[in-house]
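agent> Task received from the user: take the single chain below, predict its 3D structure, and emit structure tokens. No templates, no multimer pairing.
agent> Plan: (1) validate residues, (2) run structure prediction, (3) serialize to tokens, (4) report one or two observations.
agent> Step 1 OK, no nonstandard residues flagged.
tool_call: predict_structure(input=
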Amino acid sequence: MKPQELKYFKKMLNERIDELIKGAGRTVSEMAGEEEVFADPNDRASQESERNLELRIRERERKLIFKMREALQRIDDGTFGICEECEEPISLQRLKARPVTTFCIECKTREEQRQKMRGLASIPSLSFAE
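)
tool_result: status=success, residues=130
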């Protein structure tokens, strides 16, 4: 991969990490300030539901930050953009769409098909052993 392409991905990943961390900080400060008392239990339930959704989103973002930091490490060690399975270059289109990916589209497709087959095989009524 060309140095300017690596620089592009490094900048993009760092900017996205910063955005996600700022969003998490806003969530924490907003939740710390929320101590409303609701007369209606339905209002309280709605607030709890919204809070739980927000926390699930932040947990997914935390995992994404971890993957982004791994991608930055791969940039530094020279393995960014190389498929873990076939060791061929991952297309720039794929990396732009999903910069944390470690598989080319062909290997990822095969992996998803294997996972699907394992999932189907674990369902007793759909077992292929019969």
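agent> Step 4: summary for the user.
The longest helix spans residues 41-77.
agent> Done.
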